Amino acid sequence: MGIMNLAVRQYAAAFLLIGLVISAASGFGSFQYEVTLSTRVDPRQVPLNRSCQYTIEVSWEGDTDEVEIGPVEEPAMTNLEIIGKSASHRIIETKTGRRVFKTIEYTLMPVSPGMAHIEPAELPYTEKSTGKVLTVRTDRIAVEVIKPVHEPERSLKRWIFPGISVLFVGGVLFLWFRKPSRKKRTAEEPRLLEEIFLDELKQNIRLKDPDRNESFTRLSRLFRLYLSKKYRISTLESTSEALIASLKEQGADDEMVNRCRHVLTMADRFKFSGRQASRAELEETYTLVETMFASILGQARTAVREREQSEKKTKQAKQPA
């Protein structure tokens, strides 16, 4: 009996050792990874005539060869419009290997005062060894759109030096007392629409970007948003032909209609043909939009000055001699 018990214990130990080896081999064959997705908006309270930045950041670390990262779809949103987009990649070394970051930034323009929402972002990825498709998801983000802000006038620095003449002091005092009324009048006047979009054009459309078709898409989207605000028509979902027809119905002159047709036709050409736009074609369309904004802005400012001069003359005529 003692010999049989010893044999049983030996066989049991052998089976236990085999189980540990199989378990260890299975452990060596497994892989570890981490995939994360985050979103943020800055600022969360944005004036109607300002833009905000929506950022999506994807990162993964570990056995990245065993994971296939899917695309992040363009965000769905209400009361906000995309007027710019950029993307970047970076890699950092960690204690466990390399961590890869992909960042996508959208420039958003509010449509109307009130609440705006950006729907959750989703990132699908596939485990190559199992074929299992997993998804990470963010939360919905709310953005408050408030009334337009007024542009503060930049204050001028004045330095008073000893020994200046009485005449110069009188001139400085004259300008000093006139400046508050001018500043008050300027603060009451919001920025003109063309001034806002001219700034957005220069900040978000980069002629040196290698993907010129994407630049054309951003330019077309910005231009359509401008037309929707200026003429109060639906432009972002309309075809180019329907948009041109709406402009004519709203009384746009022939010059404006022809410019719009040129910009929209060029954007559609590269959107549907798949051909890469040339630098010259992008610069030509960019210059056309920039010149149009600057021309309308100049005419509006001239009209404002003429109105102020007319009001000044009327006021002077009413004063007793």
Describe the structure.
This protein is an alpha+beta fold and 321 residues long. The chain has two domains: 33-146, Immunoglobulin-like, CATH 2.60.40.740; 193-307, no CATH class. It has seven helices and eleven strands. It has helices spanning 2-29, 166-187, 193-204, 212-231, 240-249, 254-273, 279-318; strands at residues 33-42, 45-47, 52-62, 67-69, 77-78, 80-94, 97-110, 114-118, 122-127, 133-137, 141-146. Strands 1-3-7-6 form a four-stranded antiparallel sheet. Strands 2-11-8-5 form a four-stranded mixed sheet, with no helix packed on it. Strands 4-9-10 form a three-stranded antiparallel sheet, with no helix packed on it. Strand 9 and strand 10 form a beta hairpin. Helix 3 packs antiparallel against helix 7 and helix 5 (240-249) packs antiparallel against helix 6 (254-273). The N and C termini lie far apart (137 Å). The model is unreliable at 11-30, 153-163 and 180-187 (pLDDT under 50).
